[in-house]
Amino acid sequence: MEIGIGDDGAVVASPYQREVITTDIATEGVHFNRQWSSAYDIGAKIAIANLADVYAMGATPHYLTVAIASSGAEEVSYLLDIARGIESVASAYGASVVGGDVVAADSLTIAITAIGGVITPALRSGVKVGDYLYLTRGTGRSLGGLLLLSRGLVDADSPEVKFFQRPEFHPEDLTEFGYENIAALMDVSDGLIADLGKIAEASKVCIDLDIDEGQLEYLRDFAKKLELLPLELFLRSGEEHSFIVAVRADLQSQVPKKWIKIGQAVAGRGSQEDSGEKIRMRGSKLPFTQEVWHW
Amino acid sequence: MEIGIGDDGAVVASPYQREVITTDIATEGVHFNRQWSSAYDIGAKIAIANLADVYAMGATPHYLTVAIASSGAEEVSYLLDIARGIESVASAYGASVVGGDVVAADSLTIAITAIGGVITPALRSGVKVGDYLYLTRGTGRSLGGLLLLSRGLVDADSPEVKFFQRPEFHPEDLTEFGYENIAALMDVSDGLIADLGKIAEASKVCIDLDIDEGQLEYLRDFAKKLELLPLELFLRSGEEHSFIVAVRADLQSQVPKKWIKIGQAVAGRGSQEDSGEKIRMRGSKLPFTQEVWHW
């Protein structure tokens, strides 16, 4: 950053020929709840959601701006904690908060815009028939934490509650494989099943899920406690911010060992064999609807 | 724009080596009021405020992102009208809306981030003792329109009400003179007196106002109707988005004829002769406080 907060705008260096710009807005009672999360975690979680969109375009985040509409009830220290949470995430991933605006309002609303540099964008629309779909890290804990909190089963040490409050975020999973090897990319925001539907739609393919339930072992005990199937947590949990990656069949051997294979793209969505479905499970109808189901 | 709304982010060309980033957030009941302005004008006015900050840094706007938190009461058509108002301003000044996010909330809040290209930034801190201060266009009508509305003296054809609803915006006033001739720059957001205070503070000078009241003739009849002095409207009206320009004394002859000379920078604010004041009027104390006074 060359010139920061205090003038009419921030002046920053812009070495890339192409940039990615993403915006997220979150509001109290809809996207966060101060009974369940600290101000610091609220700020961090929104920043993670925003940076995940930058990485999901194949870009590296550089700059963030933050706009906060705060109700009179918020003390300055509360807003500073939100800002510190955002700052902690930005700096952990090499980005700077370069500008902001804070105004009074009836409720607490936080908008973040991130700008990143990109060489070759990674799009949702890049999947071709035959590509394999992978998940960089197993999903399920965010929804699990939310269900624990909403059912009053709170345990401060629960890793699921911690994950819900501040998702673990590992964009380095992508750089390890290399953006140049990625056919299509998206982060898990609304839940795997909803987000896979968007990839299928954008790529005009059908995604045939084939999930080895042995890979969902990490959810077993926990799902039991919630009286849910591990697969349901896995497919429905949103605000995860791990990545869905489509890979050409001939690059399968280079995929990092810890990624989870979840299926393959087959003809559909506009092709002659279009079944009308965007996602199937081993060739059959899904056991769940694709409806978004997150807090 | 290369890739637009619909993926995780927008991908845009970034030909400038330096960029300006600015963010504004506005919320119903504090920054706008749907009884007094149409959705289209609300969107346009927030976009103008945001683009004015870009120009006020010596930059040219390229891209905007828009984030809206809307209460359940807003119909889709109302939000589309806000978006159309924003879009109308963006396209009038050569910028594109490249991304957005819309979420549900308890009240209506709109955040806009603008990104512009800049070669040499124009800062608030560039004023030197001896520089002259100019205003690109006369201020006063925005506050005038607000006072008409709030006192129930509404006249739909009143140019002041129209200006309050959607400020006239003329960044070409700056390009006519040339950014390279500008010592310091700021747009009038909070009112001339408040904004001059910020320039004085940033530049560590005192600004000695010397306003030829003959130049305020355009406010005379109107001020009378509101039982105010023209000077008070001139100095206090915010959301004007004309520009305060500081010019070195030897460039005075090049200043466009229609600009209004408002004063000169004198020693102060940290210098030996510091009077403790940021703004004086012909060497004396101001007749008004510098307190911000806008709706």
SSE order of chain A, one letter for each helix or strand: EEHEHEEEHHHEHEHHEEE
Give me the Rg of chain A, rounded.
Answer: 20 Å
Based on the coordinates given, report the CATH architecture of the largest domain in chain A. Answer: Alpha-Beta Complex
Work out the helicity level of chain A: 25-40%
The multimeric state of the shown protein is: homodimer
Structural class of chain A: alpha+beta
Number of helices of chain A: 8
Main β-sheet description of chain A? 6 strands, mixed
Distance between the termini of chain A: 36 Å
Globally, the shape of chain A reads: globular
| CATH T-level topology of the largest domain in chain A | Phosphoribosyl-aminoimidazole Synthetase, Chain A, domain 2
Number of domains of chain A: 2
What is the total tally of β strands of chain A? 11
Structure in a nutshell:
Two copies of one chain form a homodimer. Chain A is an alpha+beta fold. Chain A has eight helices and eleven strands.
Short key terms for the protein model shown above:
homodimer, 295 residues, alpha+beta, 60s Ribosomal Protein L30, Chain: A, Phosphoribosyl-aminoimidazole Synthetase, Chain A, domain 2, six-stranded mixed β-sheet, four-stranded mixed β-sheet, 8 helices, 11 strands
Please characterize this protein's 3D structure.
- The structure is a homodimer of 295-residue chains.
- Chain A is an alpha+beta fold and 295 residues long.
- The first copy, chain A, has two domains: 18-118, PurM-like, N-terminal domain (60s Ribosomal Protein L30, Chain: A, 2-Layer Sandwich), CATH 3.30.1330; 124-281, PurM-like C-terminal domain (Phosphoribosyl-aminoimidazole Synthetase, Chain A, domain 2), CATH 3.90.650.
- Chain A is built from eight helices and eleven strands.
- The first copy, chain A, has helices at residues 39-55, 76-92, 141-150, 159-165, 172-177, 192-203, 220-225, 230-236; strands at 10-13, 18-27, 59-71, 96-105, 109-118, 132-135, 184-187, 206-209, 243-247, 260-266, 279-281.
- In chain A, the strands form two sheets. Chain A has a six-stranded mixed β-sheet with strand order 7-9-6-10-8-11, sandwiched between helices.
- In chain A, helix 1 (39-55) packs parallel to helix 2 (76-92) and helix 3 (141-150) crosses helix 4.
- Strand 2 (18-27) of chain A pairs antiparallel with strand 1 (10-13) of chain B, so a sheet runs across the interface.
